[in-house]
Amino acid sequence: MHLTREEERLLAGEGGEALSKAMEVLLAIGELNNARRLIPIASAQVSGVSYKTIGDAGLEFLRDIAQSGARVKVLTTLNPAGVPLESARELGFPEEFIRKQEEILSAYASMGIVTSCTCTPYYVGNLPRFGEHIAWAESSSVIFANSVIGARTNRESAISALAAALLGKAPEYGLHLEENRRGSFRVEIGAELKGSTDYAALGYYVGRHYQGIPVFSGASPGGEDLKALGAALATGAISMFHFAGATPEYREERLEKVEVGEEELRSVWEELNTCEDPDVVTVGCPHASLEEVLAVARLNPRREVWVFTSRQVKALVEEKISNENIKLIADTCMVVAPLEELGIKCIGVTSAKAAFYCANLSKLKVRFDSLENLLREE
Predict the structure, then answer these.
(1) pLDDT grade for 350, boundaries at 50, 70 and 90
(2) CA distances from 111 to 16, 51, 78, 234, 374 (A)
(3) CA-CA distance, 20 to 14, in Å (whole number)?
(4) What's residue 162's pLDDT?
(5) Could you give phi then psi for residue 261, rounded to 5 degrees?
(6) What are the pLDDT digits (tens) for 252-264?
(7) Cα separation of 118 and 252, whole Å?
(8) What are the chain's domains?
(9) Are 248 and 150 within 8 A, CB to CB?
(10) Does the pLDDT value for residue 378 go beyond 80?
(11) Three-class SS state of 104
């Protein structure tokens, strides 16, 4: 891979050990993927934030970088933390977990990273332009950026996204290249999709059974539908999709066709549902938008609903929420928070991504359904 003179100096350690290690990471990834060079990026989104997922080893790694004095070169935002920072103690999260989580965020902040703690950076100011190169981690934000916004990023890991942020560059391969962004196969939707939960089920089925870039047709999704579809697709190995009439890089072309109908969607409901009566109903995976929060409020729930969102959206809407059953929770989500340590055993979700990871990461039982059905009184 070709390096500029400046990049060679950084690799040799002239910019400090942290930047040298960052160069080593990007060089290794680039050479593995036959990248020709590093290219400038406009922003980064870094995962590896929750203490639940990175543990003490991750915290020590971040401490070392922070103490080196290295700082990011581009706008960089953070994924959700493991606890809601303002109400963690009130909700009963373990004190040691809270303390370690605060240390993680302090380390990131010392690098110049915006501690946004959301998986929807495009709602809080990290909004790339069409065609712009970025380096984002967190699968749902990656697929949204590629598909709905039309920015260009591979699915970075926590370490590679941080390395890219520190250098302001990423290896040029994969979805950074025009020729790799075309559709691989066409999905004809043979079922009625009534809301974002149905789009999530569609995405989950396709993501678990196919690889490549799917091209969807046969429905008219809204913005929240596209977000739910993408998050579910990304539970597999898919990092981009096209949707006829809805995404900016969609084009008509002849592709192999697959049909996803009622039977395929039914198999998703059967796989993901493992309990009937959840201990708590949750919304916001990916983090809820202003529109989604207000939709919960309009349903006027009579049982407790935890709505996970960014602190910016929470600040905009919390004064409008009068129903005490609606708990607005910022900075974390049901996937990366240790809900099992709060005694929760069964969780209600509207997101196929949340259903998959709550079951596999936290070993929770799950009821996956539309919000209306989850709140319906028997």
Answers:
(1) very high
(2) 14, 18, 12, 29, 42
(3) 8
(4) 98
(5) -120, -160
(6) 999 999 999 999 9
(7) 34
(8) 5-178 (3.30.499.10), 182-269 (no CATH), 273-375 (3.40.350)
(9) yes
(10) no
(11) helix
